[in-house]
Amino acid sequence: MARSWRNFFRRETDPAQESGSGVATTTQDEEVPPAEEVLARRDETLAEGEEEAAGEVVEETLPGQDAVEAAPDAASAIERQESGGWFGRLRSGLKRSRESVVGQLNAAVAEFRDADDEEFWEMVEEILIASDVGVTTTAELVRELEQEALEKNITSGRELRALLVEHATRMLEGQVELDVSHRPTVILMVGVNGTGKTTTIGKLVNFLPGSVMLAAGDTFRAAAIEQLQRWGERTGAPVVARQRGADAAAVAHDAVEAAKRDGVDILLVDTAGRLHNKVNLMAELNKVRRVIDRQLPGAPHEVLLTIDATTGQNGLRQAKMFDEVAGVTGVILTKLDGTAKGGIALAIANELGVPIKLISVGEKAEDLHPFDAREFAEALFGDL
Amino acid sequence: MFETLGERLNSALDGVRSSGNLTEDQVKKVTREIRLALLEADVNYAVVKDFVGKVRERATGAEVSRALSPGQQVVKIVDEELANLMGATVHKLSFASRPPTVVLLAGLNGHGKTTAAGKLALFVRKLGKSPYLVACDTYRPAAIDQLKQIGRELGVPVYDEGTEPPPEEIAERGIRAARDGGYDFVIVDTAGRQVVDMEMMEELKRVRKASRPHSVLLVLDVVTGQNAVEVAQAFQEYADFDGMVLTKLDGDARGGAALSVVSVTGRPIRFASEGEKLSEFDYFYPDRMSGRILGMGDVLTLIEKAEEQMDRREAEAQGKKLMSGKFDFEDFLRQMRMIKKMGPLSGLLEMIPGLGKQLQGVQIDDRQLGRVEAMVTSMTARERRNPKLLQNPSRVRRIARGSGTTQRDVQQLVKQFGEMQKMMKKMGKGGVPKMPRMPFK
């Protein structure tokens, strides 16, 4: 029932995508000092990765069991949760909040008589706002619902909830697939401090088809490089790093060169967390992007923004600013395992048109999942 | 993307005359705007409901002060209610009579505990304490390394036992090591956790018990949304925190979560952490938060200033005089000086939400005000009280000479003042309240 990892990676080249990025790239000369890279490799695990990469059509290395083959680490856990699946996990993760939200919705829906009931709509508004959907998108959603309820002369709460899920799904739908058709494909991870960039990279590595290389672009936070190296050790992906305090763009430069040289399929570039209102730090991020584009025209092919599900309306600003500076191709909604409902995803998809691509519902690698609009909407508002 | 509350209230109260009481209808309009502003600031909706109810009660029938516009008046009520909620006191650290003082940091993943631990260490060292850090985050890869790097940077020792032992044991031994080493302020850093993870919450309970802290601080990211309430309640249940550290305040989040948590748990915010430098950490000043949540820039400061300068009784007398058309140059001078006391005019106008943008490029010359004042002070007392005398050219000549201006300047001032008087008189009789051209500029 969950969206499969198998269809998540788009491997054919899309000429439209190839032509370049949405962000203005200038080719100024940036000083990129010569590499003194530290390649943290583990020979046995790397061999495994290369074997996988050797398969011409990677699709074949990922048979029907979704991610199981690609993520040996995750296999046992997936079996363990066979019954519930990720949706079950998401639901249980959201259980406490669901109980209140859905409980309220149920109570409200039970009272629903006709579309003219203003008190009822106010209640729906409240429920949406309590899920961090935000005032603007809530108003839009309620307006749509109200109109359709009138037109279709809906009188049962059940139908109404289905309608709510339907509309939310439509708002959430977007280009979910991850474009990994390039060789190497460069994926840039961006986001505010503490939203889970490095952790998500550690999880994502397990699912990516082909050989993966990591770039420790967070040269600022204490021990961020070590954290990524730890993930490299666990997953067998080589890590390109410099010392702390080094120029992040230089690390990205080294990494792209290394990825090209070594014939790596996918390069994941970590960056330091930064607040979106810090002009200098955002300029630095833009430089990282430009340097990557210069070393490999058209790259980065994906720019993924991590957003903490506990984030309120500021998430909109985060997405807007990061998109302006780095050209965000998708959002990863992290930490959905708490009481947060992640309604900000709805606001981001609706108000900014940035698609949600992945969600993370727990601390383990297998807790990372391709985003499914309908199931997310159902987990938010549905009672199945 | 967001309108400030000040702007919303101004447009909601557009056309409301600055006299009399606020009607029920006006209050309804206004409270609706307040509700939206608070929700957009991520204040929990249940807290908003409660809060707006209080404001409505106070605003209905509230007399409009002459010093403030009706919008400002409501903002003031909101601000006071916010202040009631947040408390006015700065909660300074207290230290154990028998050192070491032990502080435990807890919170969700990624809200900035480890960084806050380092910042707090530096903060207490400046207060003359000798801090000691204990690394109990045995989960996140390299979390211990992070704390150790911070410790090295600050020259503060970090106790760790790697990731194997249970955190409660690490905490206990770490605190003992601090005591033995003669350190008097121990900061215990714990792993980030989600409140629905019962195992982790139970573990936190054990760490709390083992470390017997003098203070438990919940570290909360200022961007937190509606669920801040559930998070805080869970941490209250398992860790019984007595205060909060609000982090990432250098971002542009409104921080309504802070309000939610304070109002639900009754626990104050003790520290504000903003910025990536370890020194950017201070006690939390609650009065600074209200303007931020409401997104009103410094409008509150403006309101305060206006109120300070304008004695209420005097204001009422002035208002009556103004409306009756008996307003003379003496009154004008008094008002002008009042405005001057509030600071430069350009700065004053910038503080008004919505006006800031319109004023871009407009040069407001404070010297102009000085010139007008010079002209008025060059008038005799009789002239000031009876502006009609100023039709006399020789008087005008004298005033121009005395104030270093031209006769034309003086004539213009007199003419505009006359127009203003007429306008005020009309307003007093219930005419259209339209701002007359002020006699300067």
Order of helices and strands of chain B: HHHHEHEHEHEHEHEHEEHHHHHHHHHH
What general outline of chain B do the C-alpha atoms trace? elongated
Strand order of the largest sheet of chain B: 3-2-4-1-5-6-7-8
* Spatial gap, N to C terminus of chain A: 13 Å
Query: What is the count of helical runs of chain B?
Result: 20
Structural class given helices, strands, pairing of chain A? alpha/beta
Any idea what the radius of gyration of chain B is?
A: 29 Å
Report on the architecture of this protein:
The complex is a heterodimer of chains A (384) and B (441). Chain A is α/β, with parallel strands linked by helices. In chain A, the strands form two sheets. A nine-stranded mixed β-sheet of chain A has the order 2-6-5-7-4-8-9-10-11, with helices on both faces. The longest helix of chain A is centred in the N-terminal third of the chain and has 17 residues, at 95-111. Chain A has 15 helices and eleven strands. Helices cover 47% and strands 12% of the residues of chain A. Chain B has helices at residues 5-12, 24-40, 45-59, 70-86, 113-126, 143-154, 167-180, 198-211, 228-239, 256-265, 287-294, 299-309, 312-324, 329-341, 345-350, 355-358, 366-377, 381-385, 393-403, 407-428; strands at residues 101-107, 131-136, 158-159, 185-190, 215-221, 243-247, 269-273, 281-283. In chain B, strands 3-2-4-1-5-6-7-8 form an eight-stranded mixed β-sheet, sandwiched between helices. Chain B is elongated. The chains are: A alpha/beta (384), B alpha/beta (441). Chains A and B meet through helix 5, helix 6, helix 10 and helix 13 of A and helix 2, helix 6 and helix 9 of B.
